[in-house]
Structures are given as structure tokens and as C-alpha cells.
Amino acid sequence: MKILLLEDDILLHESLQEHLEFEGWDVFSAYSSDDVYNLTYESSFDLYLFDVNVLGESGFDILKALRDVGDKTPTIFITALADIDSLRKGFSVGADDYIKKPFNPEELLVRIRSRYQKKTVVVYKNLKYELQSHQLYKEGQLLPLSNTLANLFHLLISHKNRVVSLDKLFESLVNPNPNALRVNMSKLKNKLDLDITNVKGVGYMLKD
Q1: Is CATH 3.30.70.2190 correct for 2-115?
Q2: Number of Cβ atoms within 10 Å of the Cβ of 40
Q3: What is the pLDDT of residue 118?
Q4: Of the N and C termini of the chain, which has fewer Cβ atoms inside 10 Å?
């Protein structure tokens, strides 16, 4: 799923992007109305996540402009504006959902998974993995993994044929260090018969 994230708070933007990409979604970053117009001109998206008070036009005005030209992409506003008039305006310009700051990123992920993400199954050799539920099946049988291995596998399978950075992989470890990562990658590779490539100094990649 391709998501366009409009948020001008850099720390919040990076945090949300990290959570969304962990789910396997492709996140395109925008910090102003000009960014949004340029990106939507070049490509289509599956979901918009728009802050309201940003550089240039407001998130409300941006969505109205997009709706006026026939863009029906589902949109969630993420904003500190909590008054009823702002809520009413957000929905009047075409929003599908509205989440008030501050919020737990997991709440946003739950809403996206339940309302906007189509159930996606990735097949790899004799494995089937449900990206939405994070359930792994081997030859039809549910296969449990430890939290560490499950998180590492999710990162690899959702970015299949792309390198996952060391920093992102370290986040799945209790004691993040290269040796621990190497040991867990070896366990994962042997347990599931995975073709995992170590791109030295950069990260790891699961190859078809």
C-alpha cells in the first residue's frame, strides 16, 4: 500500500513513517501543500494521512482541491485541532477519518489495517504470510515464532527483494548488536529455509 504522509513536525513524521514502513507500506513524505500537489501529480496513492496546519495551504484546503478534481483517495486527518467546527470541516471536505493529536501510533495502524488495507498474503516457497495479521503458515499449519524472529521475518518478507537497513533490524532485538542480529538471522534462515543475503555494512535482504 502506498501512503502519502503530510506532516511538518519532523520528529512525528519520522516516527509515523517508521511505524508505517514496518507494516510493509511504502511511505511518501510531504511537509507542505506544494509537496502534496507535486507528489499526487506524479503518482497515485492508496491512502492520504494529512496534518492540517502545514506550510502553504491547510490540509483541509489541500483535500478539497484534490476532491474537486475527482481524487477519491481515502484520507485520514491527523491534527491537534479538536474542536467540533474543525471536525465538521474535515469531514465536509471529504475526509474518511480523523485522529486527534497526541495519539498512540498503534491506534492509527489499527484504523488503517481494519478500514483501508486489503488482506494481503505473501507466498514464499512453502510459506504463506498474512501481512495484516502477521500470521505465518508452513504447509497450511500455523507456525509460531518468537517475538524477535517474528519481527525480523515481518521486516524481511514485507520488503522482499529490498535491503532492510541494519538500524531498522536492530529495533527488533532485545540487545541490538551485529552479533545478535547475525545469530537471529541464522536461526530464521535455518528454521524457515530462507534465502537471506547479508549486504555488508548496510543490512539484510530476503530474495525470491
Answers
A1: no
A2: 20
A3: 60
A4: C
**Average pLDDT estimate for 62-91:** 91
Contacts of residue 119, defined as CB under 8 A and 6 or more positions apart, other chains included, come to: 130, 132
Cα Rg of the chain, angstroms: 19
Q: What does DSSP assign to residue 50?
A: E
Task: In whole angstroms, give the CA distance from residue 125 to residue 176.
Answer: 29
Could you tell me the pTM of the whole model? 0.62
From-to residues of CATH 1.10.10.10 in the chain:
146-206
Looking at the chain, the domain(s) classified CATH 3.40.50.2300 span 2-115
Output the pLDDT for position 60. 95
Write the DSSP assignment of 113-182 as a string of letters. HHHTPPP-EEEETTEEEETTTTEEEETTEE----HHHHHHHHHHHHTTTSPEEHHHHHTT-SS--HHHHH
Amino acid 113: pLDDT:
82
- Is 146-206 a domain of CATH 1.10.10.10? yes
Q: Please report which confidence band the pLDDT of residue 140 belongs to, taking 50, 70 and 90 as the band edges.
A: confident
136: which 3 cell numbers?
505465518
Q: What are phi and psi of 79, to 5 degrees?
A: -155, 155
